[in-house]
Amino acid sequence: MSATGGPKRTTPIIGGINKPKPIDKRHPLAKSDPDLERILVQLSSKIQYAYIRAAMIADSAPTFEPVSYATQVVAGTNYYVNQRVTQHGWYGKNCGGGGDNDAEYCHVKIFWQPWTNTAELTGIAVRKTKQDPFEYDMPAP
């Protein structure tokens, strides 16, 4: 029961961002949200390009590992994904993202509309930490 005496809300609030869900071995993305896993693969090159532009780095080929995500119900779904960034130089050297203390994260916002099969990268925020909250308004890629 909620404080007002009514039942607790378990369905997402339209327009509100749900509590972030972790992605790890106990909660793999393939089981928790297979659509998001497919969308991240589909948009991987766009995310990489947007990250390089937003972070203003030249000698890097970053890879991304999603660590948590949240959803927002709109005329489809907005996915907010926190991703751990590993930067690889063009010659294969790791350029950063060693331990969790000095790891770099980025947030991406993806709009997904299944009935039109639309998946679009709509925002990216760089130089985040693992604990930074998601923002509604991320800079456009």
TrEMBL record:
<protein>
    <recommendedName>
        <fullName>Cystatin domain-containing protein</fullName>
    </recommendedName>
</protein>
<dbReference type="InterPro" id="IPR046350">
    <property type="entry name" value="Cystatin_sf"/>
</dbReference>
<feature type="compositionally biased region" description="Basic and acidic residues">
    <location>
        <begin position="21"/>
        <end position="30"/>
    </location>
</feature>
<dbReference type="InterPro" id="IPR000010">
    <property type="entry name" value="Cystatin_dom"/>
</dbReference>
<feature type="region of interest" description="Disordered">
    <location>
        <begin position="1"/>
        <end position="30"/>
    </location>
</feature>
